[in-house]
Amino acid sequence: MTVNLAKGQRISLSKSDGGELTAVRMGLGWKAAPRKGFLARLTAKEIDLDASAVLFAGREAVDVVFFQHLTSDDGSVRHTGDNLVGGAGQGGDDESILIDLQRVPVHVDQILFTVNSFSGQTFAEVENAFCRLVDETNGQELARYTLSGGGPYTAQVMAKVHRESGTGGAGGTWQMSAIGAPATGRTFQDLLPVLASHL
């Protein structure tokens, strides 16, 4: 059963049978909002949203996975590739980032997921945008966060997966928190100052 996450909500990433999740996929989907008027449709350009995952050890960014660096240095996080135009908004993932939770290095305790409008359009020009977390071992959707409200922003800090504090490093249970914080920037680098406030 999917949990529809509200901003700030957190869920534990443990299986209903008590087992630990081993591999998850963060999916991102979107489509362009319909444009009104002949001239607007004529001059419209495709919307290119980019999903990124920034790996943190404490408060320090130690690696990033995005369209120009598709696999983390340790191989635990992998981007499936850049989608330049989005989809039909039918619920499928336009970009995905796979995380092998068992291979994430012990010192990495948080992975933040961001979405940027590389082409510069605001979220007011995007429809049906969502981020979802899927159990990669069986394809079950665990949580979904909808990018609602549009607005004059070109980026969003979507969510993070993080080790539960106080459980001793590598043995820590992973949790997901929906953040949904609007921001401005065409790339994840533009968001680094904002990400610090969500660690």
UniProtKB/TrEMBL annotation:
Q: Which is an annotated Pfam family here?
A: TerD
Which InterPro entries does the record match to this protein? Stress/Tellurium_Resist, TerD
Sequence ranges assigned to domain TerD in this UniProt record: 1-185
Q: What is this protein called?
A: TerD family protein
UniProt organism field: Streptomyces rugosispiralis
Q: What is the lineage of its organism?
A: Bacteria, Bacillati, Actinomycetota, Actinomycetes, Kitasatosporales
